[in-house]
Write a structure and sequence with these properties.
The protein is an all-alpha fold and 270 residues long. The protein is built from ten helices and no strands. Helix 3 crosses helix 9, helix 4 (77-107) runs antiparallel to helix 10 (231-251) and helix 5 packs across helix 8 (166-194). The longest helix has 31 residues, at 77-107. The two termini are 30 Å apart.
């Protein structure tokens, strides 16, 4: 699935650029909207439950589901730590793309084609990362693989803080793509191993509530800092935040409480 998503992110911008040149930007957006409609209709056709275990007999209210999801995430230590790590990474990670695009346009004054090439490098790295992860996942245990990827995440912002070579920037984007897949696949796998099936949906929602709320904050911070202080300052800040995540990950063994099977109750995962 990760491979297909990475391929779509490579092919998508190319098809989008061709569509804009052929039918214009407005019609291209309309085609994009239609693709979402097709996806919605396809999902409505799915009637079978995704869960492998029986559902609860009673129906919770919306607020009860939220409370149960937050309680589940917070009561399982590895999931709680992953949520903290994801929140910090998302605070600076996506913002690096904003700062990078600002640098390309305003600081390096490169042609607009370079923005597309560099962003495609990220997608290419994600495709490569899906292949590398399949190989490494069989040879390196989950906790160590997460530790390695968290440590290596400090390297890209440090390099981007001083390099002005677009080819080096593109290579760094490829490297970031590999690390993104390595971290995402392992962290999602760990969550699914620890959280009971019937709680996965509401727990994932609670997890993303914290992990994703930092993305717009980081994007806004990247734009403001890039404009007023320069993108180098933001990349150094990103490196510091990711260094904190790496240090915390080294001292936290997320794999130490993974059971052979899923816990029957939330408390068994703590």
């Amino acid at each position: 699935m990760q491979t297909s998503m990475s391929l779509s992110k490579i092919v998508g911008p190319i098809l989008g650029g061709m569509a804009i040149s052929w039918i214009g930007s407005a019609n291209t957006i309309l085609v994009d909207v239609c693709s979402y409609v097709v996806s919605i209709i396809s999902m409505l056709a799915i009637v079978k439950s995704f869960s492998t275990t029986s559902q609860k007999n009673h129906k919770n209210t919306f607020m009860q589901d939220i409370h149960e999801g937050i309680t589940t995430v917070w009561s399982i230590k590895p999931v709680r730590c992953l949520m903290l790590f994801a929140t910090l990474v998302n605070l600076v990670g996506p913002g690096m793309d904003v700062a990078l695009l600002y640098r390309i346009q305003h600081e390096l004054t490169l042609r607009s084609q370079w923005a597309g090439i560099i962003m495609t490098g990220l997608s290419g790295g994600m495709l490569l990362g899906s292949l590398v992860n399949r190989w490494a996942g069989k040879r390196i245990n989950m906790n160590r693989w997460l530790t390695i990827s968290s440590i290596l995440q400090v390297v890209p912002p440090l390099v981007l803080s001083f390099t002005k070579n677009p080819l080096v920037i593109c290579l760094i984007q490829i490297f970031i793509g590999v690390l993104l897949v390595a971290w995402n696949v392992q962290s999602v796998t760990l969550r699914q191993m620890l959280i009971p099936d019937y709680l996965l949906g509401r727990s994932s929602s609670a997890f993303r509530l914290s992990a994703w709320i930092s993305i717009p904050l980081g994007d806004g911070m990247a734009g403001i800092m890039g404009q007023h202080f320069g993108t180098q300052v933001y990349f150094i800040l990103a490196a510091c935040v990711l260094f904190i995540v790496a240090v915390l990950k080294v001292y936290v063994r997320l794999e130490q409480v993974i059971p052979s099977t899923k816990p029957n109750a939330v408390s068994s995962g703590t």
